[in-house]
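Students often ask why inverse folding is considered easier than folding. One informal answer: many sequences map to the same fold, so there is more than one right answer. In these notes we will look at a single instance of the problem. The structure comes first.
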């Protein structure tokens, strides 16, 4: 893995952070204005944009097909908690606040018997995914 490969990977990660921040700001503004959030439409739009970002990185780094899954896993582990954290902070909520208004957050409530630490569980799992997928990416690209 050469220096340019690392530069492209770093740019990808920064782009994910910027994109998650922008989406969180848009959702926070929509919620503040009283608009309802279409979670399915948002998910599909975000998935397509991240997929395009992954394809660009794969093209620039001459990555193999397995890299797509690893880059998507890294995106999940970085984009999702960044989006949630910024959305919560912009709304004046606790950093680990999650809501039953969407299926993803409801999953974490259902996995936690009292629901109090559901947000923390989500952050921990996402951090774990980011670490594992990043490690696998580096392992598969340096062997």
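Output (designed amino acids):
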């Amino acid at each position: 893995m050469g220096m340019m490969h690392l530069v492209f990977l770093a740019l990808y990660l920064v782009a994910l952070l910027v994109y998650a921040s922008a989406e969180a700001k848009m959702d926070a503004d929509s919620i503040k204005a009283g608009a309802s959030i279409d979670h399915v439409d948002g998910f599909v739009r975000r998935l397509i944009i991240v997929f395009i970002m992954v394809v660009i990185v794969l093209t620039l780094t001459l990555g193999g097909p397995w890299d797509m899954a690893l880059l998507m896993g890294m995106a999940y582990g970085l984009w999702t908690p960044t989006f949630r954290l910024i959305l919560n902070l912009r709304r004046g909520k606790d950093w680990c606040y999650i809501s039953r208004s969407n299926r993803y957050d409801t999953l974490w409530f259902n996995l936690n018997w009292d629901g109090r630490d559901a947000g923390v569980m989500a952050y921990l799992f996402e951090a774990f995914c980011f670490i594992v997928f990043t490690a696998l990416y580096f392992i598969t690209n340096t062997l």
